Amino acid sequence: MRLPTTLLLALTAIVIAGCHLNGPVGDHPGTMAPSREPSLISETTREVLTKRAPDTLVARDGSSCRVAADVYAATAAGSQFRCPWVPGTATSQDSAAHRE
């Protein structure tokens, strides 16, 4: 009866190690499940002040975001957009154009 007990202990150790390596379960408050998705930490949501053809959205703070043509066409000035905004790349013409 020694082999089944050893086998049971080995399987238990494997299961515990597997659960530990995968991290906490996401449905408990205050915990996050690990993900293989790319990190979006550098992306922030900002209001689109204006757009520069053919592919650039400009935020109120002067930062800009380059997007695909279909996203550019579907995004209206004044809307909120999540993107990896690049600081200070808008020109003074962008803000002047918005004021007119």
List the helices and strands and how they pair.
Blueprint: H1 2-22, E1 44-52, E2 56-59, E3 64-66, H2 69-74, E4 80-83, H3 92-99
Antiparallel strand pairs: 1-2, 1-4, 2-3
Describe, in plain words, how this protein is organized in 3D.
- With 100 residues, the chain is α+β, with helices and mostly antiparallel strands.
- The chain has a domain of 56 residues.
- Helices cover 35% and strands 20% of the residues.
- The protein has a four-stranded antiparallel β-sheet with strand order 3-2-1-4.
- Strand 2 and strand 3 form a beta hairpin.
- The longest helix has 21 residues.
- The chain is rod-shaped and about 70 Å long.
- The C terminus is likely disordered.
Report helical residue fraction. Answer: 25-40%
How far apart the termini lie comes to 87 Å
Structural class, please? alpha+beta
H and E order: HEEEHEH
The fraction of residues in strands falls at: 15-25%
Low-confidence spans: 23-28, 94-100
Sheet having the most strands: 4 strands, antiparallel
- How would you describe the shape? rod-shaped
Cα-atom radius of gyration: 25 Å
Q: Helical stretch count?
A: 3
Let me know the number of strands: 4
Looking across the biggest beta sheet, what order are the strands in? 3-2-1-4
* Average predicted confidence as pLDDT: 74
